[in-house]
UniProtKB/TrEMBL annotation:
Keywords: Antiport, Cell membrane, Membrane, Transmembrane, Transmembrane helix, Transport
Biological source species: Mammaliicoccus lentus
Domain Na+/H+ antiporter NhaC-like C-terminal per the UniProt entry, residue ranges: 160-464
GO cellular component: plasma membrane
Domain of life: Bacteria
Name used for this protein in its record: Na+/H+ antiporter NhaC
Transmembrane segments: 9-29, 35-52, 72-97, 109-130, 192-212, 233-251, 257-276, 316-342, 362-390, 447-467
Family per similarity comment: Belongs to the NhaC Na(+)/H(+) (TC 2.A.35) antiporter family.
The keyword Transmembrane helix is assigned to this record: yes
InterPro entries in alphabetical order: Na/H_antiport_NhaC, Na/H_Antiport_NhaC-like_C, NhaC_Na-H+_Antiporter
NCBIfam families assigned to the protein according to its UniProt record, in alphabetical order: antiport_nhaC
One Pfam match: Na_H_antiporter
Length: 483
């Protein structure tokens, strides 16, 4: 006879959530223990809790397998981005973009330009991940060459990438949020502007002011010139090197699948590596799989001596490859185990259900949904799961309070998809930190755009009764059936 599964009490649910919050916040952000270990520890604690309440280990593993299945596209995108970075580096595409940036960007405007460049690429591609994995890598190279704060630069890149992503009708999260909420995708984007525009204005203002504090005299201009000279010595630089990013841009505008576009871009970079940079085929494949290594330059440059190259150039060039995403994918598996354990424990549903019973106003409905969305994304690390759970929990409540579903779709984005990259244990943050080479704890406080969306959503809800519900779309409610 199978053991009966029972919901935990409110007290036990809150207690477990507090314990897990301590593990994640203190363990990862304060003590700086390995993310993977803290996720596994939290998952084990939640699993034991779930089993104690009648759940089975087999079902927890089944839930985990379903989450891995839903995240298959993410795994493939990560591997593809690793392939792109390795081949773009060998072909000279990233060095060319770096050289271009070094020569046209003033150190004082680098943070601002990082935000703008990432935003433009994300808007065109509809993918913050692809934006960070392409233009983001090049901008980080420029910042490293200029000896400029890498944490602020990474924060600006992540902020810009997510801003562009939220304005793109090609974005998977934008499309998913609108589909789940059953609203038009373009209306959803327009409704997002009430929170994304002020978040963007504050972000670019802060990045502009932070940049003004940079003294150009302290940015090692001699070092920058040496780096630029090294890049031109090591690679055949010309406009043909822009073909790989152009393929991504054109493919995105034509709404082709992101995996196809990334693969074609990598293939074009491999062809350039063979024909223009004159690498042997075996080494080109090696760069795609294991990443580009500066030692490979000795095969195409006569009498190449690594010691003659600026150390910063050596560090920048050593990047990419499918295998470079191994740590990221491992962390995702740990995150999926943690998310499966949390789902099996049912603690989030118990707490949110209790809170829902106390909601009486439109303002409190929005505030509770924002808090719940943040809690769910931090517990599951999966935007799709977050969106569907928020739909199930809050759709009727929004309608009951006279709130259009556009408000719910925006809450999904502002509390779920956007803040995700600022917290170390989420899949987005793991990817950003791995790709940009800066830990989430370092760049997180500078991911300003990612932190402000939920703030402005909350402000609109709080001020709503006093500003005629500006920025919040209302509907008429028929209460005749409730009499």
């Amino acid at each position: 006879m199978s053991k009966k599964i029972k919901n935990p009490s409110l007290f036990m649910s809150i207690s477990l959530l507090l314990v897990i919050a301590f593990f994640l916040v203190y363990g990862i952000m304060v003590a700086q223990y390995q993310v993977q270990f803290m996720l596994i520890l939290s998952g084990v604690v939640a699993s034991i809790f779930a089993v104690f309440h009648g759940e089975t280990w087999n079902n927890i593993i089944e839930i985990m397998s379903q989450k891995i299945k839903s995240g298959l596209l993410l795994f493939l995108v990560l591997l593809s981005v690793g392939l792109v970075i390795g081949t773009w580096m060998m072909s000279g595409t990233i060095p060319y973009l770096m050289s271009f940036g070094i020569n046209i960007i003033s150190p004082q405007y680098l943070y601002l330009m990082s935000f703008i460049a990432a935003a433009i690429v994300s808007l065109c591609m509809g993918s913050s991940f692809s934006s960070v994995g392409t233009i983001g890598i090049a901008v980080m190279g420029v910042a490293s060459a200029m000896d400029i704060n890498l944490a602020i630069t990474a924060g600006a890149i992540v902020s810009g990438a997510y801003f562009g992503d939220k304005l793109s009708p090609l974005s998977d999260t934008v499309i998913m949020a609108s589909l789940v909420s059953e609203v038009d995708v373009y209306q959803h984007i327009r409704h997002l502007l009430y929170t994304t525009i002020p978040s963007m204005i504050i972000s670019i203002t802060i990045f502009f002011l932070a940049g003004l504090k940079i003294n150009p005299k302290n940015t090692e201009l001699g070092n920058v010139n040496e780096i630029d000279s090294n890049l031109h010595q090591l690679f055949d630089m010309n406009l043909i090197l822009l073909i790989p990013p152009l393929i991504i841009l054109i493919g995105s505008l034509m709404k082709k699948h992101v995996l196809i576009v990334l693969f074609l871009s990598a293939v074009s970079a491999m062809v350039i590596s063979l024909t223009m940079q004159h690498y042997p085929l075996k080494m080109v494949i090696e760069a795609g799989i294991e990443g580009f290594n500066p030692n490979m330059l000795s095969n195409v440059i006569p009498n190449f001596e690594k010691s003659s190259i600026n150390n910063t150039v050596i560090e920048i060039l050593n990047a990419g490859g499918i295998t470079s995403m191994g740590s990221t994918i491992l962390t995702l598996f740990c995150a999926f185990f943690f998310a499966a354990a949390i789902e099996a424990s049912k603690v989030l549903k118990v707490v949110i259900a209790r809170v829902l019973s106390l909601i009486k106003t439109a303002t409190s409905t929005i505030l509770v949904s924002l808090a719940s969305g943040l809690a769910i994304i931090l517990s599951t690390g999966n935007g799709t799961v977050t969106f569907f759970l928020m739909k199930d929990l809050f759709s009727k409540q929004y309608t009951k309070q006279g709130l259009h579903q556009l408000n719910l779709s925006r809450s999904m984005e502002d509390s779920g998809a956007i803040p995700e990259a600022a917290f170390p244990w989420t899949s987005a943050a793991v990817y950003m930190a791995t790709t940009l080479g800066v830990s989430t704890v370092e760049y997180g406080p500078w991911a300003i755009f990612n932190l402000l969306g939920i703030v402005f959503s909350a402000l609109l809800a709080i001020l709503g009764p006093y500003i005629n519900w500006f920025g919040i779309k209302k509907i008429k409610v028929d209460n005749s059936s409730e009499s």
